[in-house]
Amino acid sequence: MTASDSRSGVVVIGGGFYGSSLAAHLARGGAEVTLLEARQDLLGGASYFNQARVHGGYHYPRSLRTAGRSQASYQAFMSRYESCVVDDFLCIYAIARGSLTNARKFRRVCDYIGAPLMDAPASVRRLFNPAVIEASWVTRESAFDAVKLREIVRQELADAGVSVRLGTRVESVQESEAGARIALEDGEVLGADRVLVCTYGEAIDTLPQGVGYSGLHCEPCEMALVDLPDVLRGKGITVMDGPYFSLMPFPSTPYHTLSHVRYTPHGAQPSYEMAAAALRRGLTSRADRMLRDSARYVPALNDAVHVESLWGVKSVPARRDGDDARPIVMRRSEGGRVMSLLGSKIDNIGDALRVAEEHLRDAV
């Protein structure tokens, strides 16, 4: 295609949950919005490749801010997306002996942020190997069905009047005093007053200075889908806090996702492109190692069966490894017309909308 003179008020690049939600939010506020997604469907990347957990804050005892914001956001997400939320399972957290926190500190954090916590009954405690588990609790967390969430997002975009273009890969974004210029891979050029990049660390060849991210950990990751023995069905189990594991229902399938801090990441890469290239070359599954190690803590996992694995790239600020915080990071170009947003957890979308709105309001 040849260059086009078409122009939009706001172009959002990236049709994951954050990009799609931001596009609909801005359009409802009166902006003319075009959403560009490189894949053939929405919510096909990190929005699908995850444990589908609606966080209640329990996952982050070493970052009070992240834990507190998760708990504050939990009910808002549950209310808004009730039709795609699944909460008919028992959510269990346990603290491993020798972890980065302990039972007393974990309870103190939960009390501080107002996260419900109930001592596990004997039937739950018997699931764990007491030699390696200090304590366990029943908590309040849910899971979302990513397939149903995609349908909700599609409808929100249509209702808001967003122009959605799938299979549209962006090659570069340039900025001038008059606006922004978005060059597509097929040669078409779009104009916009403002551009918001929401690609979870996936780089575009050229972005204005100030918009890109440095110091990211970009990890090719494996999420194992496992079929569980009867004693573990209807349960989600997370062992904290360190090189342990998490087991959660994956509502769009009859299986559970198994994620392991040591074995899910297949090495850190300095860029999203290098991590994605490692996935394209093919990686050897570590699901057997995930199951063997996890069974040390929950012996019934010896009878779990690995069905398949989901593969994707996880991008997080490397400097946050010490406290495991998951902030929402916004970058803005020198001219203020191009911004990028690196999201955290899917349930913190309310915070992301506020952050983006503040930056957009101050930009031009």
CATH class of the largest domain: Alpha Beta
- Structural class estimated from helices and strands: alpha+beta
User: What are the segments in which pLDDT stays under 50 over at least 5 consecutive residues?
Assistant: none
The average pLDDT is 90
CA(first)-CA(last) distance: 31 Å
Biggest sheet character: 8 strands, mixed
Radius of gyration from CA coordinates: 21 Å
Q: What CATH architecture label of the largest domain applies? A: 2-Layer Sandwich
CATH topology of the largest domain, by name, is D-Amino Acid Oxidase, Chain A, domain 2
Short key terms for the protein model shown above:
single chain; 364 residues; alpha+beta; FAD/NAD(P)-binding domain; D-Amino Acid Oxidase, Chain A, domain 2; 2 domains; 8 helices; 26% helix
